[in-house]
Amino acid sequence: MRKIIFGLVALLALVGCSQKSVSPQDAAVASALGVKEIKASENLDEISALSKPVTQNEDEMFAWINAVRAKFERDDVAIYDTVIKVEGNERQSNFGTKLQTAFNKAFLDVRAQYLTFLTQNIATEEARQSSTPEASNAKNIGELASTLSQSDSYVKSVTRKASGMLGGLVPIQTNLVKNKNGVIELGLVAIVSPKTLQIVNDLKSGATASTEGRTCKPLSEWLPANADEAVGMLGIRLVFNEMCEPVVLSYALADLPRNEAQRSRQSAVARQKASLEADSFVANFLSSSVDVDQMKKSEQTVVENLAIGDKDDNAAVKTKSVFASLIRSNSQISLSGVKTLAQFRTASDAEISAFVVVRAYSSSQIQNALGFGSDFYKEREANRPVPGKAYSKKSRNDLDPEDF
Fold first, then answer.
1. ∠ at Cα 179 (174, 184), nearest 5°?
2. Which of 44, 156, 267, 391 is the most exposed place for a label (fewest CB within 10 A)?
C-alpha cells in the first residue's frame, strides 16, 4: 500500500485578524480536547526542552515516537506523529530542498491527522458475492470436473473527507534517521493543547501574551550551537524569552552550492528563500485551511475447485488493496513584527550544504511593529517587572489582635 500526499501551500496573503477573544475555531478545538475553558496560566517548558532533533538507529524510530508520546500524553492534549522518507542523499546539491520538502510533507500529514480528529465524514461500502457450481449443465465428465468450483468475492471501500481551519499545532521534536543502507527518514511528533491555542489567540489578536513559562532565558540561549545543528531544526518551536513571554521560533533552510564562488553569490537568494519558508510555518501555526480526501479499497476473491476434494490447498486466493490520499492546505494571514533572529551557513565541505534562517514571532514584537516610531513600546517596556534582588517590606503594625 502506498500513500500519496500532495500539499499546496499559498503563503502569507494580507488578511488581517483582530479578534480579542478566543476564536470559534479555537473554542471548538478546546471543546474537542475536552477542555471547557482555555487557561493561560500553564506553561510549555517541557515542549521547549525537546526542541532539538535527535539521530539514532532506524529500528528505534517508533520507540522514540512512543517515548515522546508517553512523556506528553494527557487528557487535554492531542499528539500526532508521522515518518516520511527523505529522497536522495547528503552529497546531492539539492539535498537541503529534499530535506525541507520531507518536513513540509510531515507537517502537512500531522495537520491532516489533527483535522480528522476534530471532524471527518466516513463513508463505507461493502459487498459480498458467492457462486456455486451448476453440475446439471455439464455435457461430459471432463466438463463436469471443470465446473465443480465455487467462488466467494468480498469488496470493501472506505472514504474519508474532512475540511476546516486549524491552528495551534506545534512540533515537539524531529528525528532524522539514516540506516546502514543509506535510506534516510524524518520523524515528527507534534502536539496541540489549550496552552498552544491560547498562544495562537494572543498572536492573532495582537494582545499581550497571557501564557508564561518557567524556563525563561534570552533567545540567543535557545538557538542551536552551530550551523550543523541548525540544519536539523526544521519548523517552529515554542520557547520563552528572558521576560517569560512565549516566542515562536521558525527554522527553514535553502540549498547552497559547494563551490565557494557560487556560495557567495547565491547566499542572498538562499536567505530570502529560507526566510519565506520560515514565515510560512508561522502562518500555518496560527491558521491554515486543510482539506483531506482519502480512499481505501480492498478486494478478495476465493475460488475453490471442488473436484480436487477436501484439501487445504484447493483454493486460489486473490487479494488487492488500494489507498489514495489527497491533502490540501493553504494559509492566508497578516504577519506583523516577524524578525530574523539568527542565520547559519554550513561549510562547503559539511555533510549538508545549506543556509538556515531562524525567524522569531511574539506578542511584544507585534505591538512593537504596530507602535513603531511612537512612545507605545517605550511605555510598555517601562511597565515591565525589573529582575533584581528579592525583598519584602512590611509597614509597622503595633496593634494587638484584641484591638480589632
1. 50
2. 391
